[in-house]
Design a protein that fits this description.
Blueprint: H1 9-19, E1 31-35, E2 38-41, E3 46-49, H2 52-55, H3 64-76, H4 89-100, E4 104-108, H5 111-128, E5 138-142, H6 151-155, H7 160-163, E6 173-176, H8 181-187, E7 192-197, H9 213-224, E8 227-231, H10 245-248, E9 255-258, E10 270-274, H11 276-279, H12 295-310, H13 312-329, E11 336-341, E12 346-350, H14 357-366, E13 369-370, E14 372-374, E15 378-381, H15 389-406
Parallel strand pairs: 3-13, 5-6, 5-7, 7-8, 8-9
Antiparallel strand pairs: 1-2, 2-3, 4-10, 9-10, 11-12, 12-15, 14-15
Helix pairs in contact: 3-12, 4-12, 13-15
Bound molecules: pyridoxal-5'-phosphate.
Length: 407
């Protein structure tokens, strides 16, 4: 292929270096097309996408049913604002509420907005239902969690990179170690209105809490009359082989935060899902979003819900996940310090003696497999649930080969 500017990786990298804010450090690949688990870069090279947009692409690139839903709605109606109703909003909210098993849905756009909305909701609920004195509400969160990038959210992050230089921060948060139910119980005071947790910590490196932790969190929240808010923006909607990772661990949260895969990898769509005695505290004028619940997003969301309801995606995640964890387990002690995960979602810690996580990702990229490092030496694998067993084996062969060549 002759290289012109538009199909030269270097040309795109230069444009991005000069004109795109440097808040990311992408791998040296510039993608032009995607289909299923595969993407093609501007120079025509093909890669297996084993990141899947941090799980926003759970159903793969260009899923035909999702694209058809988007295309059909695109021609009819895309935006009304919430000043008026649309014929997609009611059905979307009803179908998502049914899927999750709660009464009501508050549609937003990004994951961070769902988290912010959940925090606002918890404070209002605390003042109105629990009679917490004005401006005293506190929320317990977990160390090493990830919930997005707004000022409030990075304010309670324990990652110095995420919070450094962005203060002053929103007060009212108490941080406890993740996975320690006693510490969580001890942090709850009469002013605590909610506990916010990821049922599996994604950005921390796919950290699955000890068995019994989430049920213990549920018990502590019930005992203190505190809302359990589960941030399932990344863990929810199929990644773990279940609609909700919290339920799979034997607990039920009061408030579920969903995002990423809810928009089918086509557009941003997030939601706060809870019963009417909680979400009902929000009344007209007290919260909103110009794009939240727009008909285009709702139409795609409805197609996503239908895919999840049908069940085969969840089944794939469980079966392929078992295969992936067995293969990754074989690498422990062979250059990999530990491997863990659930469903089609894994974190592996590379022995720092072999190289950084970044180096492993660059070598995998050169072998046609896209993954992303997190926290120096951890690699996170989250292929789309539509990946075939053969494609997954190919990706795992590449991981094995890279670990061997570095060792
Ligand atoms: C990605 C993520 C968010 C933030 O979502 P954005 O759409 O990037 O704002 C929040 N919580 C969790 C658990 C996430 O993984």
């Amino acid at each position: 292929m002759t290289l012109t500017a538009e199909n030269s990786t270097r040309w795109h990298e230069q444009l991005m270096a000069e004109h795109s804010a440097h808040n990311y450090h992408p791998l040296p690949v510039v993608i032009a097309e995607g289909r299923g688990a595969w993407v093609t870069d501007v120079e025509g090279r093909r890669y297996l996408d084993c990141l899947a947009g941090y799980s926003a692409l759970n159903f793969g690139h260009g899923h035909p049913g999702l694209v058809a839903a988007a295309r059909g709605q695109l021609e009819r109606l895309t935006l009304t604002s919430r000043a008026f109703g649309s014929d997609q909003l009611g059905p979307f909210c009803a179908e998502l509420a049914t899927l999750v098993g709660k009464d009501m849905v508050l549609p937003m756009n990004t994951g961070a907005e769902a988290v912010e909305s959940g925090l606002k909701l918890a404070r209002k609920w605390g003042y109105e239902v629990r009679d917490v004195p004005a401006d005293r509400a506190r929320i317990v969160v977990a160390a090493r969690g990830f919930h997005g990038r707004t000022i409030t959210i990075v304010g309670f992050s324990t990652d110095p990179e995420a919070r450094g230089g962005f203060g002053p921060f929103t007060p009212g948060f108490d941080v406890v170690p993740y996975g320690d139910a006693d510490a969580l119980r001890a942090a709850i005071t009469p002013e605590t209105v909610a506990v916010l947790l990821e049922p599996v910590q994604g950005e921390a490196g796919v950290v699955v809490p000890p068995a019994g932790y989430l049920p213990a969190v549920r018990e502590a929240c019930t005992a203190a009359n505190v809302l359990f808010i589960a941030d399932e923006v990344q863990s929810g909607l199929g990644r773990t082989g279940h609609v909700l990772a919290t339920r799979a661990a034997g607990a039920d949260a009061d408030v579920y935060l969903l995002g990423k895969a809810l928009g089918g990898g086509i557009l941003p769509l997030s939601a706060v899902v809870a019963d009417a005695d909680v979400l009902g505290v929000l009344r007209p004028g007290q919260h909103g979003s110009t794009f939240g619940g727009n008909p285009l997003a709702c139409a795609v969301g409805r197609a996503v819900i239908e895919l999840l309801r049908e069940g085969s995606m969840l089944q794939r995640a469980r079966a392929l996940g078992a295969r992936m964890h067995a293969r990754l387990g074989e690498l422990v002690g062979q250059g990999v310090l530990s491997a863990r995960g659930i469903g089609l979602w894994a974190g592996i810690d590379i022995d720092p003696a072999l190289g950084t996580g970044r180096e492993v990702c660059e070598r995998l990229c050169a072998r046609g497999v896209l993954v992303k490092d997190t926290h120096d030496s951890t690699i996170r694998l989250s292929p789309p649930l539509v990946i075939t067993a053969e494609e997954l084996d190919g990706a795992l062969d590449a991981v094995t080969a890279v670990v061997r060549e570095l060792g």
